[in-house]
């Protein structure tokens, strides 16, 4: 076990800056030091970690395999330290001036965002929310996103992700009432054969339906892919295309009341809407407040 009293933790901040910027000059700009000071810090790190860590290239520096191995642990450790320090600062919603960044699956954004806006206006008027698509790189998502509200049909892979179940729901297949196949039993083969309109992965954050069908040797015919749930009910009502939706939406979106619905014939698929966040920021006061607020809003909806 390394004696941390002999280790300058500021060196890890410089290491992270070099990894992020990919150059000594860029890292120096980020941490507010001269390029010479950053180079000296890197030399100390190389001795302490017994590795070159970075190789010079025409475009800057390239991390070694050892640097790549420790990068995630360094990032996680610095996150814990930052979170621990921030605990001394109380988060007062009515006084806070802050931007929270979120990813929200399109199925629930239509009914959660208006309620969230109403609560923010009432309780935290200077707090803003920035919504990002699910198409951003998963490698950097927790450096940019405070929380996710996502479909979670399976386990989350990253060890640093924590989650809370907001609501579980069944999935239904939607079609217009006079669809040629409306009276047929909905089977997996029929479901896969019918032309679909679906939400893009950037709106849902999951490909579980296609993965389950592929395991059965089936593949959907994607006649149309849209980026917003708002477009789907009218498309289904005026065509032979089918779609899927959480059953709860049948009560929350009045446009669905006139559509025919049938249970999704893929029993291994159970959709839950989960609130997800980074373990490193779990105890940060602002994060705790936001997660509690979102949980309360879903309880009201349920």
UniProtKB/TrEMBL annotation:
Q: Which Pfam families match?
A: HTH_1, LysR_substrate
Q: Which domain of life is it from?
A: Bacteria
Stored InterPro entries: LysR-type_TF, LysR_HTH_N, LysR_subst-bd, WH-like_DNA-bd_sf, WH_DNA-bd_sf, YidZ_PBP2
Specify whether Transcription regulation is a keyword of the entry.
yes
HTH lysR-type domain boundaries: 7-64
Q: Which UniProt keywords apply?
A: DNA-binding, Transcription, Transcription regulation
The record's section on Gene3D superfamilies has: Periplasmic binding protein-like II, Winged helix-like DNA-binding domain superfamily/Winged helix DNA-binding domain
- For whether the record's keyword set contains Transcription, the answer is yes
List, in alphabetical order, the Gene Ontology terms for molecular function in this entry.
DNA binding; DNA-binding transcription factor activity
What family does this belong to?
A: Belongs to the LysR transcriptional regulatory family.
Protein name stated in the entry: LysR family transcriptional regulator
Name the species this protein comes from: Meridianimarinicoccus aquatilis
